[in-house]
Design brief:
six-stranded mixed sheet; four-stranded parallel sheet; single chain; globular; alpha/beta; 15 helices
């Protein structure tokens, strides 16, 4: 570790993040780093490739470096005696202190969600050579741990965004792979941009979403997931928090402190269910019918007796079939489906908490808040605020 450098005036910090593409992790991390820098009086310079920018003649003018660090950048920083922190999970820079989003846990959540929806066949769409990446491993471990085959893989070439030829090649690979798949299949994609092209290709092939193909994106760029038709389910990571904590780690290194562990992962905030995976499939027709009934009547307080009567079966039979098919109680599924719908309303509308409570049959906003907090661990107001904070990170420029 380089020794602490003497402080003379404001800290001069290089932020090594390339902003050529509107990627949420780039802008979110940048916003978090700048926020920390503003709070601590840093002078931050956007230097994507760590070559020295503006009036500076040398990288040695910096006091520290934080960003998407590769092996070359790490070597340059070490050559100049600069502390450096990486925020990109797939960096090839070894032994560099890092704070990164936990993609493994995120795609495990996606796998659990797709299995809960009733999918039993799975696929992953990501870049060539990415089978050892945390996002693929998390998804694969989730489904294989429950006894299902590992996800089928569609490997797309990197650089598809460079031009029409590269884009056409990527679309042809995805199209041929999807055409050969046996539906229904639940997919996880490397990111929300890839998810958008997967959804478009499915529609061109006449594959119904989510009946034939469900899609969950690892990460949610706002326009890609919410502006698409259908909207795309996504794993939401707090990239602003990643950037902020990476800057805090750099601050400790510049002060001559050590950081342990050298590589830290921040768990995802949540999985947001949207149109692309909002379905339930089951080999048991009674369970499928019950789930459709619950989804269609989620705005009212449902009792098991009412559901059983509507389906012309007994309460005992219905509960037994849920236990056998899902390994979960009917009450758990009622609460899960109601909560997922409420989460979407909190995110996609500006309705007041009191109005949402009334819409979903709660006697008061207080009762609604208590229910939501039991299901998610936070209040509806906190959930909405977290989403708005995450969206503003993605929209930051």
């Amino acid at each position: 570790m380089p020794p602490a450098r003497p402080v003379q005036g404001r800290r001069q910090i290089a932020i090594a993040i390339e902003l050529s593409f509107l990627l949420p992790w780039h802008y979110g991390c940048l916003k978090g780093i700048r926020l920390y820098g503003q709070q601590h009086g840093w002078a931050c310079v956007l230097d994507p490739f760590l070559v020295g920018m503006g009036t500076r003649r040398s990288v040695s003018d910096y006091d520290g470096v934080v960003g998407r660090i590769n092996a070359r950048m790490a070597d340059v920083a070490h050559e100049h005696g600069l502390p450096v922190v990486n925020h990109h999970l797939n960096s090839n820079a070894r032994d560099v202190p890092s704070i990164c989003p936990d993609w493994y846990t995120g795609t495990r959540l996606a796998g659990e969600h797709l299995m809960a929806c009733g999918y039993r066949r799975f696929g992953y769409v990501g870049f060539q050579g990415g089978l050892e990446s945390p996002d693929h491993r998390g998804f694969a471990d989730a489904v294989t741990s429950r006894g299902f085959p590992p996800p089928e893989v569609c490997a797309i070439p990197a650089g598809y965004e460079k031009g029409p030829a590269e884009m056409t090649a990527m679309r042809e690979i995805v199209g041929a792979w999807l055409a050969a798949c046996t539906p229904p299949i639940g997919l996880v994609t490397y990111d929300s941009v890839v998810a958008r092209y997967v959804v478009q290709t499915c529609l061109e092939l006449g594959l119904r979403i989510p009946h034939d193909v469900a899609v969950v994106a690892n990460g949610g760029e706002w326009v890609a997931v919410s502006g698409a038709t259908p909207t795309i389910s996504s794993i939401e990571h707090d990239y602003q928090d990643v950037g902020y904590k990476a800057a805090a780690m750099l601050d400790r290194l510049m002060a001559g402190e050590s950081v342990e562990p050298i590589r830290q992962l921040l768990p995802p905030r949540r999985l947001i269910v949207r149109d692309s995976s909002d379905i339930f499939l089951s080999s048991d027709p009674l369970v499928s019918e019950a789930m459709r009934f619950i989804a269609n009547h989620a705005r009212q307080t449902l009792h098991i007796d009412e559901i059983a009567a509507a389906l012309k079966t007994s309460k005992r039979t219905l509960q037994r079939r849920f236990d056998q098919t899902l390994g979960r109680s009917l009450t758990d599924e009622i609460n899960r489906l109601r909560t997922e719908q409420i989460q979407r309303v909190l995110i996609d509308s500006d309705l007041s908490i009191a109005k949402i409570a009334a819409t979903y049959g709660f006697g008061s906003a207080s009762q609604f808040t208590q229910f939501f907090k039991r299901q998610t661990g936070i209040s509806p107001t906190e959930y909405r605020q977290q989403w708005q904070d995450g969206k503003s990170s993605s929209d930051a420029s």
